[in-house]
Fold this sequence. Notes:
Elements: H1 3-7, E1 10-12, E2 18-27, E3 31-36, E4 41-46, H2 52-65, E5 77-80, E6 87-91, E7 96-98, H3 99-109, H4 111-116, H5 119-139, E8 142-143, E9 152-155, E10 163-165, E11 172-173, H6 189-192, H7 200-216, H8 224-227, H9 232-238, H10 267-277, H11 279-282, H12 290-302, E12 304-306, E13 313-315, E14 334-342, E15 356-366, E16 371-374, H13 383-386, E17 391-396, E18 399-403, E19 409-413, E20 416-420, E21 424-426, E22 438-442, E23 449-454
Antiparallel strand pairs: 1-2, 2-3, 3-4, 4-6, 5-6, 7-9, 8-11, 9-10, 12-13, 14-15, 14-23, 16-17, 17-18, 18-21, 19-20, 19-22, 22-23
Helix pairs in contact: 5-7, 5-12
Amino acid sequence: MSETEEKQCIVSDVHGHGYTLTKLIGHGAQGAVWCTSHPNVLVKLSTIPNGIRREQWQSHIAWLMRQNLTRLKLARPLAMLEAPHAGYIMELMDGLVPLTSLFETQFLENAEGFLATGGLIRRLRLLRQLASTLSRLHGLGMHFGDLSPNNIFISGESDHSEVWLIDCDNISLEARPCRPLYTQDYGAPEVVRGDALSSTLTDAWSFAVIAWQMLTISHPLKGEVVVHGDPELEEQALRGEFPWVYDPDDASNLACGGIPKDLVTTSHMARLFAQCFGPGKADSQERPSMSAWQEALHEASERTITCTDCASSYLFTPEKQCPFCEGPLDENHVLVHEYEFTPLGLLPEGSASRDCWLQTGRFVVLQPGGEVQLRPNLPTFLEGLSGKPLVRLAWRDSDLLIDPLESVVSLQRGKTASPLKGPYPLKGDFRGNDREPYWLRIGKPDEPMTVWRFAW
């Protein structure tokens, strides 16, 4: 059936509801995804020929519909289509577009397209949400199977960062993987070579490639040897036969074009990329988990600062200007550093003669008009480990509002610590008058606690 014919096609689900196909929004190895005349309702039409393979696919969709995936941001199959059509319907929230639209803009316009589609902070937020969904899916013992920009949908407006996955027919149990499918450029090397089935580890590879492309506008395996070489070298690179573009031991395939990684990755993120595309290229077990990515991306998003000249976002570094316009670092910001505190009485005997203070290396950048929620540790897919936000810091007009929420919090300056029973404003009139820092102590005085240090 041609695209024109299918646009006029009406399909029905097994419950008797009809849907008119209106717009093709994506297609893959097993079918095409269409918008319909019903708002927020999509249809996946299978292109698998009649026979055993189609029956297996339909059986798999029926199994997937029985799984408890309601808390994940997935456009899950909701109902099968009635014959003669094979496929299913799914719901997707309004205002989402394929990630490919962001890629098309940034690859065509380079740095200008990067900034026009939300810049660094938006990409970190999008990737963090994607990592969270995949981490939760992996925690259920499942993998996605064919992760690519075609089946990742994001907010159409650049000031929003919602992420959903569609085309979920490849989701399978890790203990019972299905036939591997992959999209060109995003398949793990062992899958491209035909040496392995899909798994959480191949998901991890696909995610890292997507993250690298979103941040650097380049492919991690397509460096100088591929870009300037014969066309068949690209397939060799995707099979893992060349070093990745920042391989510390082999400079034969150096990165060319795009945005340098040091401008868009923290040292933590850079280590994860190097681990995935270095040792993880040959040994899938070496690839970082999705929860590791989630933590690194959360940490990076806390470190971004907005340029007051061009409004782009970049990673905070006191020595550097804005990398996009060379504007000066905004001096009107607050850095909030995290410490872990253990009272002397809880330390092992003989280990120290005073309380233990450990600076974790984590810090948060807060600018005028912004706010941040401080947590005891970085989020993981296990909500119980992350906990709820403990304290909210909000820059309102010229004041810094400290809201303890439901936590036991005290604010210390010098030797005086005062418990906070509710929102407390630090007045802007007194900012910078005293270099003595504030210590925001979260927890009971005689117990280990997280402490945040900042100057005002």
